[in-house]
Amino acid sequence: MKFNREWLEAWLQNPTTIRPGGVMYAKAIKASADKTADTIDTGKLTPHVKLGKADSAAAADALMKLGADLNLVQKGAFKNGSPGPMAKMLFSKLRGCSSCHSAKGGDGGRSGPELGDAGSRLQPDFMVAYINNPQKFDPHIWMPTLGLTDADVQKLTGYLLTLKHTEAQ
């Protein structure tokens, strides 16, 4: 319900960085030498295993079935409209998304996942549901519930769908 199957299968064959500090971000943080900023201790990260073509297809099939019975994502929640000229500004300035997420592909997000390939990676209805209420998916997630209007959620989702960085795959 979260990933696009084609992306997931390709990623399982050649995993790339989505979160700079991995899923357990706080466990990979270390103070910089000059104590002015935190950095990622890449030595504490476990690289994701690469799967062969047949194994990645089987794993993708199994993973795509997870969560379907939880009713977390409403089919048709994304209205498939154009994001409009304000959508990028909503992401980068007005709603604070760029504080945690990067829209540029290749080196992970900040504390949240990189979104430079969100249009290839994530299903639109999942994005709408997650932006509206991330705690519904994980009550301990750092992403806040922002109380955005449906129009802003639709614009942000539309913008994220335009992000299809594929060089890292």
UniProtKB/TrEMBL annotation:
Matching SUPFAM superfamilies: Cytochrome c
Question: Which keywords accompany this UniProt record?
Answer: Heme, Iron, Metal-binding
Alphabetized Pfam families for the sequence: Cytochrom_C
InterPro entries, alphabetically?
Answer: Cyt_c-like_dom, Cyt_c-like_dom_sf
Quote the Gene3D superfamilies the UniProt record gives. Answer: Cytochrome c-like domain (1.10.760.10)
| Molecular functions (GO terms) | electron transfer activity; heme binding; metal ion binding
List each copy of the Cytochrome c domain by range.
82-164
Kindly provide the name given to this protein in its UniProt entry: Cytochrome c, class I
